[in-house]
Automatic annotation (TrEMBL):
Keywords: Aminotransferase, Transferase
Organism of origin: Ammonifex degensii (strain DSM 10501 / KC4)
Gene Ontology molecular function terms on file: L,L-diaminopimelate aminotransferase activity; pyridoxal phosphate binding
Matching Gene3D superfamilies: Aspartate Aminotransferase, domain 1 (3.90.1150.10), Type I PLP-dependent aspartate aminotransferase-like (Major domain) (3.40.640.10)
Family recorded in the similarity comment: Belongs to the class-I pyridoxal-phosphate-dependent aminotransferase family.
Official protein name in the record: Aminotransferase
């Protein structure tokens, strides 16, 4: 066999082999393992959205190749959503491109702007695709630490000037996976100024912008004055509408970046199956009660998880958005040893923070995307094995 390309060999190593082996052993031994590790909504896609795909499946034109940039009608629905929700005006023809899930676009935007040796600024901890896409394009991630003392926002003023000058892309993600942190419009204003100063493309991942609680409505980066001159935002149907398996998202914002992404994609993929795009239109234009109901359900789970962790000794505030809790590991543990301990002793899986980057060390992520009774059972087991923890 020929040598595997460096771009693949340079991808970060897979960290979870050991813990996965442990999980398999436990399952084989008959343990009922409960996973708090997976960020994938457990409830089904709402019925009115499923109904639309069934209807569109019967339309023969929908069986043919879609266009790679996406149905104009879907892009118009995205523009209507931005106008309604954020007061942001978008030209659906030139400022929106359909994606096969936002993950696809996040990986490909790196190919659009990074030549070998170019730098992308990547949050750490962060969704692994920012670094992965950068490395596959031959670029170099420069990691921006997201630390609790800074509210898990990167300190842009700490990026060395030579690095900022070499960088072409700045990846950001608020509400944030894995930290559940949120960003205020004033932070986004700083980002726009920084991007202008160093001629960067801001790539804001807004996957969780609709998953929020207690009346909080997360802002769009594109609503920041000047944002459309320096950035694009990745949107996704996956999290608000329980559509992770459908593969539908978009990129919107700066016209040139949207055009380049569409051009690159037209050489790689042939777009999203049209019935799925029609279902996406239904999701965006249709009743939003389903989103409110999901958020109400996540809030119930969040509150019972926060209460249980507080009883065990964690000092935490309930997150305002996302379906994650990002918690410090008790003293005496690393991220990995804590995750392994919980599998071994409680049959409970959490994600070690190091899976999201070096600065995830000392933390673990809990996902609320499992039936409430299962979450409760997992928390009971954790209390049993941990008792009171200290830090
Ligand atoms: C789930 C998630 C996405 C969404 O990915 P899709 O490809 O649209 O399903 C994007 N970014 C982050 C941070 C996520 O957690």
């Amino acid at each position: 066999m020929p040598e595997v390309a460096k771009r693949v060999k340079n991808l970060p190593p897979y960290l979870f082999a050991r813990i996965e082996k442990l999980i398999e052993e436990k399952k084989a031994a008959g343990v009922d393992v409960i996973s708090l590790g997976i960020g994938d909504p457990d409830e089904p896609t709402p019925e009115h959205i499923r109904e639309e795909v069934r209807k569109q499946l019967e339309v023969p034109e929908n069986h043919r190749y879609p266009t790679s940039r996406g149905l104009l009608s879907f892009r118009q629905a995205v523009a209507r959503y931005y106008a309604r929700r954020f007061g942001v005006e978008l030209d659906p023809e030139r400022e929106v491109v359909t994606l096969i899930g936002s993950k696809e676009g996040i990986a490909h935007i790196a190919w659009c702007y990074l030549d070998p040796g170019d730098v992308a600024l990547v949050p750490d901890p962060g969704y692994p695709v920012y670094a992965g896409g950068t490395i596959l394009a031959g670029g170099e991630p420069y990691y921006l630490p997201l630390l609790p003392e800074n509210g898990f926002l990167p300190r842009l003023e700490d990026v060395p000037t030579e690095v900022a000058r070499r960088a072409k892309i700045l990846f950001l993600n608020y509400p944030n996976n894995p930290t559940a942190a949120v960003a205020a419009p004033s932070f986004f204003a700083e980002v726009v100024a920084f991007a202008k100063e160093f001629d960067l493309l801001v790539c804001h991942d807004a996957a969780y912008v609709e998953v929020a609680f207690d009346g909080y409505r997360p802002p769009s980066f594109l609503a920041t004055p000047g944002a459309k001159e320096v950035g694009i935002e990745f949107g996704s149907l996956s999290k608000p509408y329980n559509m992770t398996g459908w593969r539908l998202g978009w990129a919107a914002g700066k016209e040139e970046a949207v055009e380049v992404l569409g051009r690159l994609k037209s050489n790689i993929d042939s777009g999203v199956f049209q019935p799925i795009q029609y279902a996406g239109i239904k999701a965006l234009d249709g009743p939003q009660e389903c989103v409110k109901e999901m958020n109400a359900l996540y809030k119930v789970r969040r509150d019972l998880a926060v209460a249980a962790f507080r009883e065990m000794g964690w000092k935490i505030d309930p997150p305002k958005a996302t379906f994650y809790l990002w918690l410090p590991v008790p003293s005496g543990f690393t991220s990995e040893s804590f995750a392994e301990y919980l599998v071994e002793e409680a049959g409970v899986v959490v994600t070690p923070g190091t899976g999201y980057g070096r600065h995830g060390e000392g933390f673990f992520r809990v996902s609320l995307t499992l039936p409430t009774e299962r979450l409760q059972e997992a928390l009971v087991r954790m209390k049993r094995v941990l008792g009171k923890v200290s830090f």
